[in-house]
Amino acid sequence: MHLLIPAAGSGRRMGSDRNKLLLPLFGKPLLAWTLLAAQHSRQIEWIGIIGQPMDWQDFKTIAVELGLVDRIQFIQGGSTRQESVYCGLKGLPAHADRVLIHDGARCLATPELFDRCAEALETTPGLIAAVPVKDTIKVVGEAALIQSTPDRSQLWAAQTPQGFDVKQLLACHEQGIRQGWEVTDDAALFEQCGLPVKIVLGEETNLKVTTPVDLAIAEFILRQRLAVASSSDHQD
Ligand code: CTP
Ligand code: MG
After folding, report:
1. DSSP letters of 215-229?
2. Rg of the Cα atoms in the chain
3. Of 91, 100, 136, 137, which is most buried by a Cβ count within 10 Å?
């Protein structure tokens, strides 16, 4: 399975002066955790990191430290996530017929989630990892007045990985460019083209590190995971 990792953002909401994926998180750059999960997936054979040239040297250093250089290709991204993914799709090897796309900023996704998505992608042309929404969601209009309360049993929070048939997703991106669609994930392009997108159960811990509080939560979760792993090692 081919995996594209959008990593060409700037991390504006993190308030940092560099790409947030290079910030330290529990002893490693944030992106290293994302790559480690992909590396341990049984299904991922090829990884394309979509980045900006100013970050390439740092990304390369991370890839070298993980021993991943042979499996990684660097692809130049664009000014929005949507543009970056389009660049990534065009940078895929010609024989790639299905692709998983996973945000570099979702550094807590597990190898099992990558495997689950890759397996499901064998039988469907479009899918996303998602979890049921826990909060009651309000639709709010002018003057901070609530317009409606959607039925929560139908609401799911979208995550990545998202997976697609490469030719179909490329065609959706191209239609989006022609029609000026602006979307925040690839599933939205597939949906707008009338194509089916299936839900694969995601993970509650698969958060997108966006603001400083997310970084603190991610550190806490990694610390817990490592503690559990080392206590089970001692029992073996
Ligand atoms: N991304 C990308 N190309 C862009 C913008 C974003 O590849 N032009 C990537 C980010 O690097 C990130 C993922 O898309 O891994 C999700 O985006 P987001 O969390 O919004 O990251 P940033 O755009 O970097 O953050 P912000 O919106 O706060 O600036
Ligand atoms: Mg962004």
Report:
1. HHHHHHHHHHHHHHH
2. 18
3. 100
pLDDT of residue 3: 98
* pTM, entire model: 0.96
- Give the number of the atom of ligand 1 that is nearest the alpha carbon of residue 6: 7
pLDDT of residue 4: 98
Residue 188: CATH number of its domain: 3.90.550.10
Maximum distance among all alpha carbons in the chain?
60
Q: Which tokens is 59 given?
A: 């990304």
What integer pLDDT is reported at residue 228 of this predicted model? 84
Q: CA 157 to CA 152: how far, in whole Å?
A: 11
In total, how many domains does the chain have? 1
Tell me if residue 181 falls in helix, strand or coil.
coil
Q: Whose CA is nearest to atom 16 of ligand 1?
A: 103
In ligand 1, the atom with minimum distance to the C-alpha of 79 is 8
* Whether residue 186 has its Cβ less than 6 Å from ligand 1: no
Q: Which numbered atom of ligand 1 lies nearest the CA of 14?
A: 28
Name the stretches of the chain with pLDDT < 50. Answer: none
Q: How far is the CA of 10 from the centre of ligand 1 (A)?
A: 6
Q: In terms of Cα–Cα distance, which of 103, 100, 101, 104 is closest to 30?
A: 104
Containing domain of residue 23, as a range? 2-129+158-235
Q: What is the pLDDT of residues 7-20, one digit of tens each?
A: 999 999 999 999 99
Q: pLDDT at position 143, please?
A: 97
pLDDT at 19: 98
In eight-state DSSP terms, residue 122 is T
**How far is the C-alpha of 66 from the C-alpha of 232, rounded, in Å?**
24
